[in-house]
């Protein structure tokens, strides 16, 4: 615990300092250029909007957070299972892998309305959208890790007459976990996009819903307040997952 906690706190402190510097640049730009508030509000106006709409924003943030978490869980489970299937079955590798690659050519904005029709305006369509967004990074990273097991270790497994399942469980999966960790870090950063895109297309709650309606009423300060919460949520998730991965897969950590 103590081995990874200081590194995580250090990364969080650097992110906080960067955010403060960007806010200072934003404040100076507004003070110097004096844009209209409906074009670019200053940090003070955004913080006021955040304070005045705190309960409204919090309720919608919890909806988006639930969609992200459930989408992450589902996408991780399906992605790891698919990677194991593709890595262990030649038939699946020949027939499933090309479909996975082609599926990435589909723009998410094109399929989002269909998901709303199929799964409704509730959480279902947003969870599916988030799952689709993170599915490929998890599958691709884990499958690539499974393919790159050290040949020397595989030779030792053959000499020990290890079965295919034992080789997979004791060698390939542990060897591929750092690659899976990298895929999960990418997935966590991309997951909020899936939830918000789903909310933009059709929703009755969530930060995407708040941004859409605030933008229609030219409440740009409220749009920025929702974006600020979304950014903080994404950062919190990323640092939490990064710390958990450093704890569970210590050999996957990189020096910062």
Your description of this structure?
This is ABC transporter permease. One of its GO terms (biological process) is transmembrane transport. With 256 residues, the chain is an all-alpha fold. It has one domain: MetI-like (MetI-like fold, Orthogonal Bundle). Helix content is 82%, strand content 0%. It contains 10 helices and no strands. Helix 3 packs antiparallel against helix 4, helix 3 runs parallel beside helix 6 and helix 3 packs antiparallel against helix 8. The two termini are 17 Å apart.
How would you summarize the topology of this molecule?
Elements: H1 5-33, H2 43-52, H3 54-88, H4 90-103, H5 108-119, H6 123-147, H7 151-159, H8 164-201, H9 207-216, H10 220-248
Kindly report the oligomeric state of this protein: single chain
The average pLDDT value, as a whole number, equals 86
Outline the biggest β-sheet: none
Strand content: under 5%
- Principal-axes geometry comes out as elongated
CATH architecture: Orthogonal Bundle
**Looking at this structure, what is the CATH superfamily?**
MetI-like
CATH class annotation: Mainly Alpha
Radius of gyration: 22 Å
Number of domains: 1
What level of helicity do the residues show?
over 70%
Secondary-structure element sequence? HHHHHHHHHH
Helix/strand-derived category reads: mainly alpha
Count of individual helical segments: 10
What name does CATH use for the topology? MetI-like fold
Report the end-to-end length measured between terminal Cα atoms.
17 Å
The total strand number stands at 0
Uncertain spans: none
């Amino acid at each position: 615990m103590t081995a990874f906690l200081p590194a995580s706190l250090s990364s969080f402190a650097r992110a906080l300092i960067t955010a403060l510097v960007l806010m200072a640049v934003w404040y100076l730009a507004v003070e110097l250029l004096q844009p209209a508030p409906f074009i670019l509000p200053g940090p003070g106006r955004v913080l006021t909007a955040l304070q005045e709409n705190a309960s409204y924003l919090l309720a919608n943030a919890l909806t988006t957070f639930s969609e992200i978490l459930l989408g992450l869980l589902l996408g991780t489970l399906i992605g790891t299972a698919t990677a194991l299937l593709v890595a262990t079955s030649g038939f699946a590798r020949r027939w499933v892998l090309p479909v996975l690659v082609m599926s990435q050519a589909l723009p998410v904005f094109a399929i989002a309305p269909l998901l709303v029709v199929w799964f409704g305006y509730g959480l279902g369509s947003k969870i599916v959208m988030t799952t689709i967004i993170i599915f490929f990074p998890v599958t691709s990273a884990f499958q690539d890790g499974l393919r790159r097991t050290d040949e020397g270790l595989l030779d030792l497994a053959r000499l020990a007459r290890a079965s295919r399942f034992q080789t997979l469980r004791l060698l390939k999966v542990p060897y591929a976990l750092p690659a899976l960790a990298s895929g999960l870090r990418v997935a966590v950063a991309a997951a909020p996009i899936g939830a918000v895109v789903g909310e933009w297309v059709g929703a009755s709650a969530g930060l995407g819903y708040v941004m859409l309606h605030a933008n229609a009423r030219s409440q740009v300060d409220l749009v920025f307040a929702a974006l600020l919460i979304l950014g903080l949520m994404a950062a919190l998730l990323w640092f939490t997952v990064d710390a958990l991965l450093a704890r569970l897969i210590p050999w996957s950590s990189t020096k910062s």
